[in-house]
Amino acid sequence: MQLFYNPDLDKSITQFTFSQEESRHIVKVLRKKEGDVLHITNGKGYIFESEILLADQKRCKAQIVSTQKKHAKAHWLHIVVAPTKNNDRLEWFLEKATEIGVNEITPIFCDRSERKIIKKERLEKVIQSAMKQSLRTYLPKLNDAISFKDFMEQEQNGLLFIAHCEEEEKVDLKRRVAPDRDITILIGPEGDFSQNEISRAYEKGFLPVSLGEYRLRTETAAIVACATVNMINNG
């Protein structure tokens, strides 16, 4: 099955027209014709089965023939990660985290961050593409980038963890994670969190966790965190 994305679809819609970009891809690249069946998600859990009414490269029109709602999982995984200096590594993380099952991502600027600007529109497209490729029906939420200080002012719920490289006693993340619980995990920049940031996180209830015996790149650490939580919730 190939999955398309249209955030404007809901159960009340019976016919719709794809964007010009999607229309061209469907008709010219995939060579779909009238009567062919397509599957679309709105990123909110629904899969719409549709039949092409008009195979036009500029305005491909389709009719909804059936609708299915997939239930969301009981847990919610929020990864708060410092953008990497190399933007390709950040995009790689977003792609793989979406495939694994992250629910929410917040880019965070820290004392030692080497990147202070991100292009959210580009990153959202990476997430959308990964959602379609992995046949997910829920689009992960990408928040606006925020400073560490401002993030710490926000109210956080569920299990709260911070992964840092300071030499101190930590418990493996897999031993901290409980199934069917909301989880927020802080992942720092290439230069790690500063001591002030670590102390502030502790004050806000974040617990230190280990992601393994070796030092990991930022994007690798974030992926390990995603995979660990996914494993505990699907084991």
UniProtKB/TrEMBL annotation:
Gene3D superfamilies to which the protein is assigned, alphabetical: 3.40.1280.10, Hypothetical PUA domain-like, domain 1
A Pfam family matched in the record: PUA_4
Domain called Ribosomal RNA small subunit methyltransferase E methyltransferase: residue spans: 76-229
Catalyses which reaction(s): uridine(1498) in 16S rRNA + S-adenosyl-L-methionine = N(3)-methyluridine(1498) in 16S rRNA + S-adenosyl-L-homocysteine + H(+)
Location of the protein in the cell: Cytoplasm
This protein's GO CC annotations: cytoplasm
GO terms (BP aspect): rRNA base methylation
Keyword match Manganese: no
Root EC class: transferase
Span of domain Ribosomal RNA small subunit methyltransferase E PUA-like: 20-64
Family: Belongs to the RNA methyltransferase RsmE family.
Known role: Specifically methylates the N3 position of the uracil ring of uridine 1498 (m3U1498) in 16S rRNA. Acts on the fully assembled 30S ribosomal subunit.
Protein name (Swiss-Prot/TrEMBL): Ribosomal RNA small subunit methyltransferase E
Organism: Zobellia amurskyensis
